[in-house]
Each structure stands twice: as structure tokens, then as C-alpha cells.
């Protein structure tokens, strides 16, 4: 088996508990994406229980799509707990360039505990790398390649793995860069596909210790399911349905035949 | 007509207002499930209005999937109001064994006002019955039958109806036990199917005074719609779509032909 | 091109950022509806960033479906900022008659800054016009025509545009009344279709300065997509999927052929 197929298989066998502190818009999609690949999602954000839930989970997903004070407190508590309990965690800096508050929150979170993986679009990664600080909402308005230099800088500074998603996905760990060219333009016409990608990488880091390998698997799974769904869809409505079916039906044969990985 | 068909018919005729204080992940599914069977959902959680909304509603659904302090305050206020206004209410103790906070919240809620019906999976019902206190997130990792003893104990202690859902659903009122064997394994691959079951039973108790009969109707409607949807679906994405259609299309003939009730 | 087709074309070309402060139940649908027509949705409600987000957005959508204290504070801050920054905004008074709190909140919001457009069902518009104050939850139990007098009064008092949606949609600006007769009864069997209508009108006011014309375009787009989706659907589950596809596939030809506008 190739690594991606092995990791998907491990997720289906172990059904790891993936703790999500994420935004209101995509919670449902994220949970269904995780269930479709065989993981076991839990959503919990109360300060009273967030440490308990981190401690029984196999990985943690932090997504700042719809921030507020109480949620940021819980996120900080959760990422600190993740570090002490050795729980791998991934951070999704949604719309980080869109407001000062998001920029500050991202910085506080990263200072509280270094994410094992960060996934964003080109604008978000560039904002984080402080090469650029203007973002048009939560969409990417830049080309992935422009952000690669920022991604390398960020990955070296944090000694972690950085994913820049887009038409081409870049997986960056220091000087090591892998690219994936799967996926469909329809994916940008549905809310929360980036967030789902983050959650699926979150499931991969729950079963694979090498973050770069896990990140490739997560983005590969997303992209291939996107390819399969797009070819059967009339628009973003049917795409969404077909995408969840594709995640569920994905297997070793499909992964081997379709993964466009440049490693 | 059998009872389940009669109850569905009453829901469609009366279109009862069902007040939901539920979790962020499933609100949309829950509302759509209720609309599909003909009920009228309202979601309201603000302390400033929760009593007003209970007082105009025909039933109340309390689901603790994504807890926090303010929401718990509203839930307590709502269940107390339900008791004084004679509004039947159902409680879904989502992931009750997963943290101390959830266990405490469930206890406070039950002490504030006894739920007319409780619906959970085997782990949750066992946790509530304090026969077991370990839960793997929000999924059931136990067999329904293991939890039946706990369910009977709980039902007798609270003098109410307890539903244990799973491959076999158990509806327990004291020593009276009914089982339903409809439904599909695909239902565990979509988030919020348990929560939707709770809401649909919530619609049934709005139109039927006998809680055991109402609980059978709700779980029967869920299971039959699940059977119908599964046979037409490729995976959990299409299942979700077909499930809502099936709820909408369900009629007396289908219910009579398909309900696997052991009463 | 007719106005509606021109406006849809402008949305697709400019991809305006539409800021939504809306309810938990429909956030996902609303975002997907906006993406399907080519707009760029952003959801942000924190007091710390709400003004920043308004100032980079082309329009603002305020929906009070699931209220609470903090959210109301943010809504007030957002609408005031919208006025000073010249950002057009639309208000959706969900379930305004259902509780005192909703009635008070609606009044505070309207006093803080007059909405450029208000969209509600007949009960909600009548409640706002204080001709009636009883609402059955969030559904309309009145005929649109009964509310037209209230809508005219409200529009004149506020000097803005009022939309009463239903089997017939009424777009009212002072004494000017236009009607649209597109759409399907299935739309009332899915949660959040009214909220999606509000958001889509929100995208139209981002690209068209004449509020009456923008409101017609938004309601026309909704209704035609509803017609197209209904004819291909078995129930509300498949309707939802087909509706998003229809929004995405809508073009000048379809609009010209199908729009039932009485202007």
C-alpha cells in the first residue's frame, strides 16, 4: 500500500476520536467528513470540559472561523493541554488577514502552543508569515505559489508542517515541499471545504506520527474525493452529497490510480 | 391505523411547535427532520426568551451536544418552565460519559425537572444509570442489550420512558419493554441521527399523551425512513438526502408494511 | 438583459463580500446560497472584529433567528458601522412576534440604524408594523396580502424597502408594490429558505443601488431556483440539493423565460 492508503486504512480500523473546536458554519460538514472516512468526531468548546475532551482524544483541530472571546479562551486552554498530553494538533487560521482580532488571536494561539500542522489558503499563510496582511474575507485571492516562500519561512520558524491549499496543494516541512494536484474548482463554491480538509488532516495526524506524511494523506484524500465528486455533479449542491459519498467509498485502488502527488 | 401512523398523521394535521435547545452541529438537520414530518421547529436559547417560547410550544427538546455555561442556564430555565406549563419534554444526554461537566450537567437537568422521555445510545444510558461512566465521545461503543438493565433502573427511578437507540431500539417504561429493529448501519456514519431521533420523538410527544406509544412512533418513523433511504443510497452523503425525502414521503401503508415492532 | 439577470451577472463578476450576522441553524445554507450565485460570504459576530468586517464588506445581513445578548450587541455595533461606512444592510426579523425579547430586539436594531431592506413573512412584517403581535414560531400563518397594508406602512415610516415573502412575494417601497409569483410549496418544508432569501437579496444590494430593483432581483433568483429545483425533487432533501445547483446554473435565458414579475 502507499502511505495515503495505509493511513486511511488505519483511520477506518482505529476510528480515532478527533476533537474539533471549530466554527458554527462548518461543524456539520466537518463531522460528516470525519465520519465518512471512519474517524470519530467530537465537538466540545466549554472551558469546563475542554481539557477532559483533549485528554481522551487522539488529535485536536482548532479552527478560528467564527471567533469570540469565550471560544478563544477554550482554544488556548485546549492547545496547551494538547502539548502536555502529547496530542497532535492542527490549526486552521480562517480569514486571518480579515481583521486585527483574527491576526491577534492567531498569534496568541501559536504562542500558546506550536501547532504540529497549519493549513490555510495562500492569503492566510502569507498573512501568518506576515508577508502580507490583507485578506478578502475567507477566500484565497492569491496564487498558492506566491505564498510558498511565506510557507517555508513559517514552517522553519515554527519547526512544523504548513499546508497551502488551492488548485495545487503545497505541503511544506522546512525545505521539503510536496505538491498535490487533485481537486476541483467546484470545491471553492461550497463553504467549509478548507475546514473539512483541516479536519481530515486532523484525523490523519491521529494515526500517523510523521506530520508531512499525514498532511499528504489528508490533502490527497480530500483532492481525490473532490475529483470523484466533481465528475458526477451538476453544481455545488450535488457536489456536496457526492463528496461525502466519495470519502466513504475511497479505497486503495482509487487512491493509487488517482493521487497526483509530486513528492 | 396503527398508533405510529396515527401519530404521524396528527403531527401533519396539527403541525405542533417543537422548541429545541440543541447543539450547534445538528440544528439544521433537526429542523429539517421536524419539517419533513410536518412539525414546526423553533430554536431559541436566550435566557431572555426561553420561557416565552416554552409557553407557546407543544413540546420541548433538550440536547446537550455542545454545552456551555449560558446554554445550561437556559436549559434549566426551560425544563422548569416546561413542568409548570405542562409541556412534555425529552432529554438527549449527548456524550454524557465523556466529561465530568457533561455528567454534572445531566444530573442538574434531571434534578431540575424529570424528563418525560430520555433518549441516548447504550453508553449514554448506562452512564446516566451510573452503571458505567466511560464513554468514547458521542458514539456508542456498547451493545444496546447491555444497557437494558440500566435503562429499566433509570426508567423506574425517574418514572418515565427511556429509549436506548442502536441496531435494536429499546423503548422502556418501567418493566414494559418494546423493541424496534428498523434502521441501517449507515445512520451511524452521519452526525446527528441520534439528535434527529430525539427531536422526532419530541414531535410525537407533542401530539400523544402516552409517552411509551409516542416513543415507539418516533423511533419507528426514524427507523423506517432509515431503511427506505439506505436502500437508495451509495454512501452517507446520498443517505442524508434520501432520509429527509423518506421522512416526507412516509405514509400509513409504508409504516404498516415495514415497522418491525416487538411490543 | 433584464435587471435581475444584470444584477446576477454583476454578483458573479464582482464577487462582493457579504457580511452575515445570522443564526446558527442556517449559517451553512446561507453561505452556500451566496457562494452558488457567485458572492463571497463572511460570517463574523465578535464585538472585537465586527466593525472591521463591516468596513471591508459590500453589504451586511442581520438575521435574528437565534438571539442572545452578546450577539445583539454585535448586531447593533454592526448596523451603526454600516450607516457610517455607507454599507447597505438588510434585516431579517425571524420570529419577531414569538417573544417579547425578539420584539424589543427588532425595535432596538431598527432604531440603531434603519435597514435599507427588511424581509420577513407575513406574520413577521405585521408584527413589525405592530398591526399584529402574535406569531407561531418562525413560520408564517398569515396570507401575504393581509400583511401588505402593514408592509406599506412600515416602508413609509422607515423610508425603505420591505419584502413580504410567501406564495406571492411582495416588494414594497412606499406606494410602489411589485409581486413575484415564482417558488414552490416545498420551500416551506426546509429550514432557512427565508434566511437564504434575505442573504441573496443582501448580495443584490451589494451591487445595485436601487433597493427596490435589488430586492426584486434577489426574490426572483430565489423563486426561479425554487421552481427549477422543485420540478426535479422527490421531497425536501433532494430539493435542497437541487436548489443550490439551480442557483449555480441560473442564467439570463432561464431568468427571462421563468420570472413571473408583476412590476
TrEMBL record, chains A, B, C:
Q: Which reaction does it catalyse?
A: 5-(2-hydroxyethyl)-4-methylthiazole + ATP = 4-methyl-5-(2-phosphooxyethyl)-thiazole + ADP + H(+)
RNA-binding is among the record's keywords: no
Under Gene Ontology molecular function, one entry of this record is: hydroxyethylthiazole kinase activity
List required co-factors.
Answer: Mg(2+)
Coiled-coil parts of chain: none
Can you tell me which residues bind substrate?
A: 43, 192
- Pathway this chain belongs to: Cofactor biosynthesis; thiamine diphosphate biosynthesis; 4-methyl-5-(2-phosphoethyl)-thiazole from 5-(2-hydroxyethyl)-4-methylthiazole: step 1/1
**Entry keywords, A to Z:** ATP-binding, Kinase, Magnesium, Metal-binding, Nucleotide-binding, Thiamine biosynthesis, Transferase
Reported EC number(s) for this entry are 2.7.1.50
One annotated GO biological process: thiamine diphosphate biosynthetic process
| A Pfam family assignment | HK
User: Which InterPro entries would you find in this protein's record?
Assistant: Hyethyz_kinase (IPR000417), Ribokinase-like (IPR029056)
- Which top-level group of life is the source organism from? Bacteria
Q: Which residues bind ATP?
A: 119, 165
Q: What does this protein do?
A: Catalyzes the phosphorylation of the hydroxyl group of 4-methyl-5-beta-hydroxyethylthiazole (THZ).
Membership in a protein family: Belongs to the Thz kinase family.
HAMAP family assigned: Thz_kinase
Q: By what name is this protein known? A: Hydroxyethylthiazole kinase
Encoding gene (name) = thiM
Amino acid at each position: 500500500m502507499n502511505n495515503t492508503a495505509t493511513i486511511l486504512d488505519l483511520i477506518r480500523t482505529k476510528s480515532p476520536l478527533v476533537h474539533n473546536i471549530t466554527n458554527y458554519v462548518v461543524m456539520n460538514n466537518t463531522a460528516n467528513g470525519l465520519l465518512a472516512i471512519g474517524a470519530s468526531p467530537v465537538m466540545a468548546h466549554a472551558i469546563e470540559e475542554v481539557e477532559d475532551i483533549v485528554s481522551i482524544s487522539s488529535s485536536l483541530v482548532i479552527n478560528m472561523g467564527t471567533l469570540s472571546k469565550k471560544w478563544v479562551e477554550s482554544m488556548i486552554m485546549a492547545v496547551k493541554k494538547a502539548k502536555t498530553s502529547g496530542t497532535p494538533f492542527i490549526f486552521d487560521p480562517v480569514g486571518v488577514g480579515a481583521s486585527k482580532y483574527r491576526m491577534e488571536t492567531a498569534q496568541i494561539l501559536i504562542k500558546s502552543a506550536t501547532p504540529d500542522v497549519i493549513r490555510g489558503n495562500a492569503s492566510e499563510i502569507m498573512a501568518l508569515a506576515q508577508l502580507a496582511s490583507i485578506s478578502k474575507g475567507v477566500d484565497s485571492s492569491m496564487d498558492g505559489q506566491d505564498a510558498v516562500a511565506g510557507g517555508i519561512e513559517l514552517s522553519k520558524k515554527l519547526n512544523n508542517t504548513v499546508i497551502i491549499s488551492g488548485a495545487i496543494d503545497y505541503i511544506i516541512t522546512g525545505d521539503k515541499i510536496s505538491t498535490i494536484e487533485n481537486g476541483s474548482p467546484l470545491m471553492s463554491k461550497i463553504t467549509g471545504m478548507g475546514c473539512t480538509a483541516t479536519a481530515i488532516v486532523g484525523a490523519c495526524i491521529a494515526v500517523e506520527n510523521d506530520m508531512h506524511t499525514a498532511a499528504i494523506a489528508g490533502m490527497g484524500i480530500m483532492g481525490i474525493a473532490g475529483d470523484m465528486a466533481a465528475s458526477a455533479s451538476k453544481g455545488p449542491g450535488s457536489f456536496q452529497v457526492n463528496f461525502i459519498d466519495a470519502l466513504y467509498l475511497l479505497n486503495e485502488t482509487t487512491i493509487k490510480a488517482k493521487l497526483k502527488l509530486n513528492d
